[in-house]
Amino acid sequence: MDSSNLKCLISREEIDSAVKRLAADIKQDFHDKNPLVIGILKGSFVFLADLVRDLDFPHEIEFVRLSSYGSGSTTAGQLTMIHDLHVSIEGRHVLVVEDIVDTGNSVAFLMKYLSEKNPASLKLCALTDKPSRRQVDVKIDYRGFIVPNLFLVGYGLDFDEKYRNLPDICTLQEIGEEE
Ligand code: PRP
Predict the structure, then answer these.
(1) Cα dist. 123→26, 29, 46, 110, 128 in Å?
(2) Mean pLDDT of the chain
(3) Nearest 5 degrees, angle CA 33-CA 142-CA 104?
(4) CA 130–ligand 1 middle distance (angstroms)
(5) Which residue owns the Cα nearest ligand 1 atom 13?
(6) Ligand 1 surroundings by CB, under 6 angstroms
């Protein structure tokens, strides 16, 4: 695959508006709660970096990392925590930030893991949501975009660790694939 197979699906301007809208909604709920914002590495790092700069109230930031997909497989039943939290979340208001909810396995695993640590509240913000691929129920409290079942790259999303740096969210088509 090369960059000639990239097509913009969600532009940087559309992303920027969505980030501002999400930040305004999150502010309403969290402005006086000093929340702990937890990004799921690696995919969320670009979104989180933009989002927190629009959260103009006190909050703290942490990251976790889950085991990745093997190529061609799904996350079902294979998830482990590679990089865990190093702070207590007991009694804290927690906002998990994710780039994409696909099967839902990653987020379902993490939300269960975090809820067992007795946070005061636990919410999920996902920039993109691909409901057509869902395998487990996930409640997305703040959602940017519903996306079709296409392979997406850019704005943190990768193909084989590439394209995370693209400012837009693009579809990546294989050569010869129908549009
Ligand atoms: C991607 C993405 C989500 C997860 C979503 O991460 O960033 O975390 O998959 O898929 P799911 O809903 O089917 O669980 P990936 O494991 O590819 O790692 P990355 O964030 O390092 O790219």
Answers:
(1) 10, 10, 19, 11, 15
(2) 92
(3) 115
(4) 12
(5) 103
(6) 40-43, 68-69, 75, 98-106, 158
How far apart CA 161 and CA 69 sit, in angstroms, is 12
CATH of domain 12-69+77-150: 3.40.50.2020
| CA 140 to each of CA 22, 95, 115, 166: distance values in angstroms, whole numbers, following the listed order | 12, 11, 15, 25
pLDDT in tens, 26-57: 999 999 999 999 999 999 999 999 999 999 99
Q: Look at ligand 1, atom 10, and give the residue with the nearest C-alpha.
A: 102
CA distances (Å), origin 13, targets 8, 50, 92? 12, 13, 33
pTM flag (> 0.85): yes
**130 CA closest ligand 1 atom index:** 12
- Which atom of ligand 1 is nearest to 40's Cα? 8
Which among 105, 70, 111, 66 is positioned nearest to 84, based on CA atoms? 66
**The pair of three-digit structure tokens given for residue 33, joined into one six-digit string:** 């709660």
Residue 74 has pLDDT above 90, yes or no: no
Atom of ligand 1 nearest to the CA of 69: 16
Q: What is the Cα Rg of the chain in Å?
A: 16
Please tell me what DSSP assigns to residue 76: T
Q: Active site includes 158?
A: no
